[in-house]
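[scheduler] slot 2 assigned
[scheduler] job type: sequence-to-structure, two independent chains
[scheduler] chain ordering preserved from manifest
[runner] begin chain α
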Amino acid sequence: MQEQNAKFFADKPDESTLSPEMKEHYEKFERMIKEHTEKFNKKMHEHSEHFKHKFAELLEQQKAAQYPGK
């Protein structure tokens, strides 16, 4: 996703060559991309934390099953 974002921003024409409508269009997409990226990163962080917790939980269950009484 970051690669695609970088490509989009790198391919943007010089603002002095854009019509007001196209400038507005690019600004709208830039905002949308940034918002989407922030939401995506936040969600991935939440999922990552959830899976770390779940993995630790499953690891403890496996240890308890392999070594009962410890």
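[runner] end chain α
[runner] begin chain β
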Amino acid sequence: MKTQSSSSRTEAARIALALACAALMPGAAALAAQPAAIGLPSMDSAPAYHPEPSVQMAQVRVPTQAPRASSSSGMVNPPPLPASMQGPLSLDAGKGTMLNLNEDATSVFVADPSIADVQAPSPRAVFVLGKKTGMTTVYVLGANNRTLLQRTVVVSRDMIAVRNMISSRFPNLNVQLTTGQGSLLLTGQVSNSSDADAIVQAVTPYLAEKETLINRMTIDRPLQVQLRVRITEVDRNVTQQLGINWQAMGSAVGNFYGGLFSGRPIYNLNQPLANGAGGVTYPVNLPTNNAYSMFGAFRTGNVDIRALVDALNQEGLLTVLAEPNLVALSGQTASFLAGGEFPIPVSQTNGAISVEFKQFGVKLDFTPTVLSEHRISLKVRPEVSQIDTSVSVTTGGITVPGLSVRRADTTVELASGQSFAIGGLLQSNTTDIISQVPGVGSIPVLGKLFSSSNYQNNKTELVIMVTPYLVEPTDPAKLRSPLESLTSPSSDVEYSFTHQSGDEPPAAGQPRLVGAAGYVY
């Protein structure tokens, strides 16, 4: 009995201890009853991920499945991923791809969810979607937080449609299109700047929001433009008397109808001006009776108005102020200055006086842009200035003269070899010449009887004529000195009788048009 009672007391103590442990540790009994059923923690029991506000990272819930039976030797290591799953992942915006894993995943992270998004349809599959251009990283974790996959995702624009558009609209051009983070790069060679501008305008609508277009296209043959300018000054009274009209009144470029100089009948346009391979027929019906003009009603695309300037210059009716010839690359600016600089004192903050120089004279700035093989867009800014003491300023005992300036700023489009004129820049100078008898002429009131005044009003008009030409580099073999074709005779007697020359004279070119006034075009 004693043994039975002691055993019963021991059993009761064990039961009490078990009940106390159960009260202190809930679930311990279940763990003690099923120790072999413990597996990997699921996503439901894992603590929630709370990133900091400044960190952009997304975690994707991976669906769980029943654990697979392992072999008696232990867990089998999964095979390594193929090489195609280890490098950077390139995606187009709006497109995605599926990544297959060799082991069950527990968590999937993407560093920047604004660039790419990830979804896990199964524990061994991850879908990556490109959202916008940029670069981010995708992490896939497995059991025991082991990294199963880490890949850099590069999202770029889908340029297939843009490339197809460029190849269809510009089939003969070699243009490459490259995408970058927030930018689109155009490279290659084009024949002229007009094609480059057309490509830029065609690609611009395909740009995304806040995306910039970088133009690195080059012209395969650098185009140069030579500008011949004549800046002249003509007496306004003379121009009114002679009926000079500097304005081209035709609707097309290069059509001149108005009378430019009186003295001879105009050319009759009722007959063809020129015929043949290089000729153009203009059956324009204009009146010819009682009309006198050097270039009156002459209509052609290659009128050279410099002949008129030469004629007026020889008669002393016109003064050529400057005649510069400048060459500039397409899109670049060339400058010309014929004049000088005069000093202007400038007061500094510390009381010292410095000197600055102001330009005056004939100045020209022009910027050509070759649009096509025969079309040129030209921005011209001519300026003529001279020192004018009538607008001088005196400060600190120093007299600073002013400037009288005549300036024009215009942009035109014309063909190579065509001319245009800028007129209407007028200047009026009034002078008063007083002649009087010394002494007596200075007496008030009575001095008017012994003096005379001669008022002169001189008006001048500034006329600027501009002619651009497309120029190309010359083959060095075509550049020859005039003395290269000359064979020196052995004696003066031989030269007198033979007049030897190494080459035959050049053959005459095509016949040119001879105008009624005697000028050849």
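[runner] end chain β
[qc] chain β: The first strand starts at residue 58 and ends at 61.
[scheduler] slot 2 released
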